[in-house]
Amino acid sequence: MDPLSITGSTLLYPVIGYPVGQVKAPMLFNKVFAASGIDAACVPMEIAPVDLTRVGPALFAVRNVRGAMVTIPHKPTCVDFLDEASPAVRAAGACNAIVKRADGSLFGELFDGVGFVRGLKRAGIDPAGMRCLVVGSGGVGAAIAVALADASAAALGINDVNSVSAARLAERLPAYTACREAFVATNDPQGFDLVVNATPLGLNETDPLPVPVERLASATVVADVVMKTDFTPLLRAAQARGCTIHMGREMFIEMAPLYLSLFGYDGYTSEGIRKLIGYKD
Q: Mind telling me which residue stretches traverse the membrane in this protein (predicted)?
């Protein structure tokens, strides 16, 4: 937003993460606020993990901070700040949206998963009955796994370099969802209908690919949550093998109205957001 439009009554919605150079939320939400005449601003705040337990809760003591968005790697840790959490937060053990209510208490939500599934369905991809591999069991991976289970995926393989984290998520899914089969998997994509990169791999061009792409079948749908660029190294490699690909920005656009509604700004749709920011199919 135009810095000259910030006033003494401007409400603040930080994006908490480490790093934050890749985040798109400030660009999107500040356009929405400006177009709608809302006296609010979305600002990135880079908080190192070692500082989060000290800085995070104190941030909400600032009177004009009315909510926050949470990105990597803070989604699991921010659950500890909440007074109340949604079922999705409890199922995934992660939070990507916090609102400060009138009494000062903090309520947490998790929109990554539902945004991801909505984006898939908008693209004509229904995860019902699919065998899905989710690479990454952190905040976004857990959220996506929960949402895919709720969308009637036939099976969910969870892969993570942290095998304990992957196992905990696989064990948690049947307790909170209608998931019939959840298990710890390798990153081998063979035999899966949908492969999701829910790790930060791809933020840098020199990152290794999250799955061995030579094992991808052309019928596999490959999705990436990395939003630094639309065509990540994984998506480019998958497209070259004939796979249907799905960009991270779709999840982001579908989440935007959910964030706005949580913060008290109703009436927005993903199509309206798409037009406002100039995203085309």
A: none
